[in-house]
Write a structure and sequence with these properties.
Number of domains: 3
CATH architecture of the largest domain: Alpha-Beta Barrel
Structural class: alpha/beta
Strand order of the largest sheet: 6-5-4-11-10-9-8-7
Helix content: 25-40%
Shape: globular
Number of strands: 28
CATH superfamily of the largest domain: Queuine tRNA-ribosyltransferase-like
């Protein structure tokens, strides 16, 4: 069991801390491949930490083992001394050489003992490398051998152990391998994919990640072997990859190629000083292209590594900002195969939906397939459920519909029959009362219908509505109060179900923002019961939670807290993963849940950081951030902020 803690997330992608004997790795992390022979290493490992902020590296224990001078130093003084690194060192086992040369000269137990003897922080099982085009029977046999070796390795090694996930191109084998690796591994390393990277078979890579990722335990970091080009880092992170290694920085340098997040270019073609990093301040790229071969390769390798480190930093920032899908879609323009891979990723929403957050700050359209992201798939499904049994809507073609226009949309005709309205949006037809919800409300797109609606004179709006309705409605009526009541009922139904909405809505009155006109608070009398966030979702205050606790069926929207943690949660302390006894499986990260003890007494309300399937399985880290509790309900506020970020703390129930 490793010491891995999730600190922030964007869907499957996560920021984390992974502790090793030589320090903590902040994930997602890039592990540069270091040649064990210092004479063949173009960039010295001390430079990785000093100038690039790269703490961890990966090197080959097999090359070290089979090269007597290197082996002697590693056995006597350790692998860290041999390669000149003071940070975490992961060692590969020879599987890549098996792929490249067909076989290796060492057995799985011997190479594992050697990795332990030379002080590797993370040792890797010598697996049976499975080529992408291997027949099923051979892939199955190789997987059985890999699983057997993994269990033997676990018995031999007490330190951190990386267990490869194999299975070739076969989804069932990848899933079985992922489950087996999760039983014994401290790092879960998706292997057998180097040929896919080399041949730009990114669609197949996505298919294999989609098969394996749901079966990998969330408690351990996930490594992707061979993901060396920076243009694929965002795609890998989308699937929850925490560690990637790269030898591409030096391989492409030997070919005279410059790595960029947007692709690869020949150094000799760079005629302008397009980069002004600290390396190029000393040696602009056009000048570097004219230097002697050895100096050029060394400078180019350094620049490629800097570009890769910067891109991994962008990935981490995108996870913090909730914009990783947007970054991955932008990077997909680098190569047609990568764009096809993004299309394939969007074709597997079931992989992402359990951890897809309830909302994000904004939804930015990047290309014509942005509307197929998992968040939109879930929204469309929920809209379809919401519309069940509802008559056909009348359609307003302008999107988004400004709140002040609602007064002109009648909710009944002259006979008293209800009228329902929908609006054409970039993600499809949406009932007007739901237009503030994510992803529609904060949608930023390029189509005219996705741009902020300009204010139109009241007469023009009224004439448009009259044209849709004809003589069947009362002229001149103001429907503002009716729309407020209808939106309260509708949003409560959307978030908590029809039964809760029917019980609560008659008790509520709504207050709208003076600036935007959107609903912001639901009151019962003078007491706020729900605050509506910028994502359009009504979240309960503690008073509202008490009412929900009375109305919701047992288990629904609830997280059950263990006896150890219940007193602290009641006082507003953070709920950590190990103290979760049960949770509603329909919850997702970002959702507000009721925190109850085993006797179903309401302790607090909080915002989920982990998905229900992760709670209790993560050994460390925050499961739910408490936002209000029985001892101190939150203050009255009509314009709520976006809520607190996940706490940064250990997993003691009384730390916060």
């Amino acid at each position: 069991m490793s010491d891995f803690e999730l600190t922030a997330r964007d869907g499957l992608a996560r920021l984390g801390r992974f502790s090793t004997p030589h320090g903590v790795i902040q994930t997602p992390a890039l592990l540069p491949v270091v040649h064990p022979d210092p004479a063949r290493q173009p960039v010295a490992p001390p430079e990785f930490r000093r100038t690039l902020g790269l703490d961890a590296v990966i090197t080959s224990s097999y090359i070290t083992w089979r090269t007597p001078p290197l082996r002697e130093v590693a056995e006597s003084r350790g692998i860290h001394h041999l390669i000149g690194s003071s940070g975490p060192v992961m060692t590969d086992s020879g599987a890549f050489q098996q792929h490249a040369y067909g076989s290796v000269e060492v057995g799985p137990e011997e190479i594992l003992r050697f990795q332990s003897a030379i002080g590797s922080d993370i040792a890797t099982v010598l697996d049976e490398f499975t080529e992408p085009d291997t027949p099923y029977e051979m892939a199955d046999s190789a997987l059985r051998a890999t699983i057997e070796r993994a269990h033997s390795a676990r018995n031999l090694r007490s330190g951190l152990l990386a267990v490869p996930v194999q299975g070739g191109a076969y989804a069932d084998l990848r899933a079985r391998s992922a489950r087996a690796a999760s039983e014994v591994g401290d790092v879960l390393a998706v292997g057998g994919v180097v040929p896919l990277f080399e041949q730009y078979r990114y669609v197949e890579l996505v298919q294999q990640l989609a098969a394996a990722r749901p079966e990998l335990t969330p408690a351990e970091p996930v490594h992707l072997f061979g993901a060396g080009h920076p243009m694929v880092f965002a795609l890998a992170a989308l699937f929850g990859v925490d560690l990637v290694d790269s030898s591409a920085y030096q391989k492409f340098a030997r070919r005279g190629r410059l790595l960029l997040p947007e692709g690869t270019v020949a150094l000799e073609d760079v005629q302008e000083s397009t980069c002004h990093c600290f390396l190029c301040a000393e040696m602009p790229l056009p000048r570097l292209a004219r230097r002697p071969l050895e100096e050029r390769e060394r400078g180019l390798a350094y620049h490629n590594l800097l570009t890769s480190a910067e891109e991994m930093g962008r990935v981490r920032q995108a996870i913090r900002d909730g914009t990783l899908w947007e970054l991955a879609e932008r990077r997909a323009t680098a190569h047609p195969a990568l764009r096809a891979a993004m299309d394939e990723a969007r074709a597997h929403p079931e992989v992402f939906l359990p951890t897809e957050p309830a909302s994000r700050r904004a939804f930015r359209e990047i290309d014509d397939r942005s509307g197929d992201r998992p968040s939109v798939v879930r929204f469309r499904r929920r809209v379809a459920d919401y519309r069940q049994g509802r008559p056909d809507d009348r359609t307003v073609r302008r999107v988004p519909l400004r709140p002040e226009y609602l007064r002109y949309l009648p909710l009944q005709d002259r006979s008293g029959s209800p009228l329902f309205w929908s609006a054409a949006t970039p993600v499809g037809s949406v009932p007007v009362e739901l237009l503030d919800l994510y992803p529609v409300g904060p949608y930023l797109g390029v189509a005219d219908s996705a741009l902020p609606a300009r204010h139109r004179p009241a007469r023009a709006v009224r004439e448009e509505v009259d044209g849709l309705l004809g003589p069947h409605v009362e002229a001149g009526a103001d429907w503002s109060e009716a729309w407020t009541a209808w939106q309260i009922r509708s949003l409560l139904r959307w978030e908590y179900g029809a039964d809760v909405a029917e019980s609560l809505a008659p008790e509520m009155r709504g207050e709208r923002s003076r600036q935007s006109g959107r609903l912001r608070t639901f009151y019962r009398g003078t007491t706020p019961y729900f605050h509506v966030g910028l994502d359009g979702i009504p979240s309960p205050t503690f008073r509202g939670a008490e009412r929900l606790h009375e109305l919701l069926p047992a288990g629904v929207r609830r997280v059950v807290v263990t006896e150890d943690a219940a007193p602290f949660v009641r006082e507003g302390r953070t709920l950590f993963s190990r103290f979760v006894a049960a949770s509603d499986p329909d919850l997702v990260p970002g959702t507000t849940a009721l925190l109850v003890d085993r006797g179903q007494a309401l302790l607090a309300i909080g915002r989920l950081v982990l998905a229900p399937s992760e709670m209790g399985r993560m050994h460390r880290g925050v499961a739910v951030v408490v936002t209000a509790h029985a001892r101190r309900p939150e203050p009255d506020r009509s314009e709520p902020d976006e809520g607190p970020a996940p706490a940064d703390a250990s997993d003691s129930p009384n730390d916060l």
